[in-house]
Amino acid sequence: MSDVLSRFHQTLVDEIRANRPEYLRGPFTVAEIYQNLVPYGSHRDRIGVEMNGDYEDALLRLLAGEGDYLEVESPPALRELREELQSANPNTGVYREFAAVDVRLNQSRLHDVDGGATYAGPTSGDGHGLRGDETLLSVGDLAPSGDDPHAAGQVVSGDPADAGTMVTDADTSQAPRLVVDDGAACRWCRAEFPDRANLNYCPFCGTDVKVIPCSKCGEELDPAWRFCIACGTEAAG
């Protein structure tokens, strides 16, 4: 299995260098790995797997941290992936539930691939990589700006399954309120929301809590949509 993980990592790095060099230093989503960068159908020979189940098992192991090739930026998501991998009969395709979670290449392992050439990243700080003088942030370091003009007029309560439900007050002078149950978790990074009023963005990954990720490709969806606008997958009801 270690050889398969090594080849998977090599293939992923090769594709990133060729097509998305900013990902050598910056984050990309789990969905981008299996949808765009190294999908099973076109890369199984390079990875060295014969069946889709073998591909899924390898990707699950990579995301769970085996070999220290990848770094999942959401601690709750990483914990769930590891627990699934360690279960008696793991669901190897469970990573699709984390399609929108950000992941990075472990910089220390890049030196093991083709001499460790890396991408310096953009110097303008445009969100697609890090400048040479920047340091990586953990999920806990990320938080939305308190000055966000869209942060007014919303409160929290409710269940994670109901996150994103818009409730309009009888007083039309007030903005619609987003109701999120106590103990709700972010659909993107799986971190538990704090019990705070005016919760518009996840304080851990910065994602708008009104949108939900497509379970297949990670596209941002409005809670009222029945199907994904990118891949056509039916949204979870």
Note poorly predicted spans.
116-179
CA(first)-CA(last) distance: 37 Å
Look at the structure and give the mean pLDDT. Answer: 74
Major β-sheet strand ordering: 1-3-2
**Secondary structure: helix percent:** 25-40%
Would you count the extended β strands for me? 7
Largest sheet: 3 strands, antiparallel
Order of helices and strands: HEHHHEHEHEEEE
Please compute the radius of gyration using only Cα atoms.
19 Å
Strand content: 5-15%
Query: Can you tell me the overall shape?
Result: globular
Task: Quickly count the helices.
Answer: 6
Structural class: alpha+beta
**How many structural domains does the protein architecture include?**
2
What does this structure look like?
This protein has 237 residues and is of the alpha+beta class. It folds into 2 domains: 2-115, no CATH class; 141-237, no CATH class. Helix content is 26%, strand content 8%. The chain has 6 helices and 7 strands; from the N terminus they run αβαααβαβαββββ. The chain has helices spanning 2-19, 30-37, 40-47, 52-63, 75-85, 107-110; strands at 28-29, 70-72, 102-105, 165-167, 177-179, 212-213, 220-221. It has a 3-stranded antiparallel sheet with strand order 1-3-2. A hairpin with a 6-residue loop joins strand 6 and strand 7 (220-221). Helix 1 (2-19) crosses helix 4. The longest helix has 18 residues, at 2-19.
